[in-house]
Amino acid sequence: MAVEILMPALSPTMEEGTLAKWLVKEGDAVKSGQILAEIETDKATMEFEAVDEGVVGKLLIAEGTAGVKVNTPIAVLLEDGEDASSVAAQPSSATPVAAKSDAKASDERPVAAPAPAAPVSGGARVFASPLARRIARDKGLDLTKVAGSGPHGRIVRADVEGAVPLAAPVVATTVAAATVATKPAIAAMPAGMAAETVMKMYADRQYDEIPLDGMRRTIAARLTEAKQTIPHFYLRRSVRLDALMAFRETLNKQLEGRGIKLSVNDFIIKACAMALQAVPNANAVWAGDRILRLKPSDVAVAVAIEGGLFTPVLRDADKKSLSALSAEMKDLAGRAKTKKLAPHEYQGGSFAISNLGMMGIENFDAVINPPHGSILAVGAGLKQPVVLADGTLGVATVMSMTLSVDHRVIDGALGAEFLKAVIDALENPMVMLA
Length: 434
Description:
Chloramphenicol Acetyltransferase; 3 domains; CATH 2.40.50.100; 12 helices; alpha+beta; single chain; 30% helix; flat
């Protein structure tokens, strides 16, 4: 019996993907474990393996097709002796599935309820403006008992605003109106200006329209969710880097023969991993109706790529040496730029680092990546005048750091304690070798 091959869910959050490339063609015999196609998720391009053996009878989705929903049939696999012509004669089931999905999405979109039909009294229609009818419905007014002051006795807004409502609301006359009246709380979050509205504003100007790919859509959705639902607050501190810079230079000279060169970011990762262990209550994530306090220090680090960013996670970072963290970070960043990371390599962690110091940014506030409890924004190290320990003026390399905190997970004093632990490690870098 022919077997439909469905669009796989290659990550826990994947809802749709792009069928980037077919690696088989119709008529090819395939074995279990053979690579059938390359599929782009919102974050990575991944290989899709065959589970069964057989012959490719029909490719239902052309390569390069974007927005293919998970569980949509993408190909048909035939068993020995089956004829591909019988499959070709059947209508593709991919189209109905997509159509069904679109129809469902259409049904779920909020639709403005029409104004209820004007009531009748003694067989005669009661004339009222649409706004008056809506207000009457909301207040539970019987329009047959309201005198209209508008033209030809038409009931207008002023007539219903001053009227006394009935003891019980009038039953809505349409299903749509009843739904809106009984469930006023089900309102979509503000989505900003519609595309058509914005495009009309720039109708007389030249522009290039850039459609959103899966990654950009995901970034937009997650960060909008973050700023709308996470109660952010911010803690700012400066750290003196002179001891760290001298220590780093010494280490890099000793490691030069092994081809290892440590960056300032490697020290920041290690310092944050140690701070998560020193202040374990800050090593936590928000889980809807509870807090999850993690045991390991799994540190995510933002990596900019063309069109977006990844946050690969260095697991158990507190247990790894600076050289091991450096090598792992270089590997993850390199594969992030080619979208070759597996989902488990960029999902998870309780905390993230976003470093724009190498781009000359002095300080900034980063947006928390849910469900993380916090994120550290790192600025550039700059030469600045400072007051030295003996009270004299001097010059030091100073770096600004801002910790964005989810107040549901971490309170102010706890966040301050965590940030102090990070700075203590950076200003006393020898402890990172202990």
